[in-house]
Write a structure and sequence with these properties.
binds uracil, binds iron/sulfur cluster, 6 strands, 10% strand, Uracil-DNA Glycosylase, subunit E, single chain, six-stranded mixed sheet
Length: 222
């Protein structure tokens, strides 16, 4: 089924699809539906749904994996240690996360003990991400980690990060896509060499991302 059909089925199912509705109104209506969502098992263990945060009029979207402990408590994505590191690197490149893009995750509820999201949870949750993408109409994506990369590339198997990071790819939505390691990779590094490698790779990739954001800004899309 195409992504558009899936979305319209969902919207009709929820009886919220009206043609006269403004995109922003629609965005916040879908958010309020998500906030009561029980489409997958993660609803049982979450504190709250983390729909996303940032500028919905910016045509740049950043997509991570799933909320962690802090995100689950405060309802905002990427506010823990990894998120702070990510935001700080971008600040050094002149990019402000709240002003310059919208950021969300492949799944909107925290998996217990921060385990990886399961395939059926990603499938259940993707209606929301597809709706967000349909409304925001991004000109550029950044995927943080392999789950977001896999989903945005429409791959069956989990990709090897070292093969896809650091270059401009084309997402399944026909929009340019950059991929980098998930910022928490640095915290979970097995050894100092790997930590240093990941840290440098993320910095390099975010430099490219910042340059692309500035190009998009120059065209008036932010
Ligand atoms: N990691 C993610 O992938 N998303 C968050 O929101 C926080 C940590
Ligand atoms: Fe619904 Fe997504 Fe939360 Fe699952 S993770 S309950 S599909 S909002």
């Amino acid at each position: 089924m195409s992504h558009r059909n899936t979305l319209i089925d969902f919207l009709e199912l929820e009886e919220i699809y009206t043609q006269s509705e403004s995109p922003f109104h629609r965005f916040y209506r879908i958010k309020s539906i998500a906030e009561r969502c029980k489409r997958c098992r993660l609803h049982k263990t979450r504190t709250q749904v983390v729909f996303g945060f940032g500028n919905i009029t910016s045509r740049v979207m950043v997509i991570g994996e799933a909320p962690g402990g802090n995100e689950d408590i405060y309802g905002k994505p990427f506010i823990g240690k990894a998120g702070e590191r990510f935001s700080q690197i971008l600040r050094e490149y002149g990019i402000d996360r709240d002003r310059d893009f919208y950021i969300t995750n492949v799944v909107k509820c925290r998996p217990p003990n921060n385990r990886d999201p399961k395939e059926d949870e990603i499938m259940a949750c993707e209606v929301y991400l597809k709706a967000q993408i349909e409304i925001i109409k991004p000109k550029l994506f950044l995927a943080l980690g392999r789950y977001a990369a896999k989903w945005l590339l429409g791959l069956k198997n989990t990709p090897q990060m070292r093969e896809i990071r650091g270059k401009v790819l084309t997402s399944r939505f026909d929009v340019p896509l950059l991929v980098t390691y998930h910022p928490s990779t640095v915290d979970h590094a097995r050894n100092a060499n790997w930590r240093e490698f990941a840290q440098n790779a993320i910095k390099e990739d975010l430099r490219l991302f910042s340059d692309k954001i500035k190009e998009i800004k120059a065209k008036g899309y932010i």
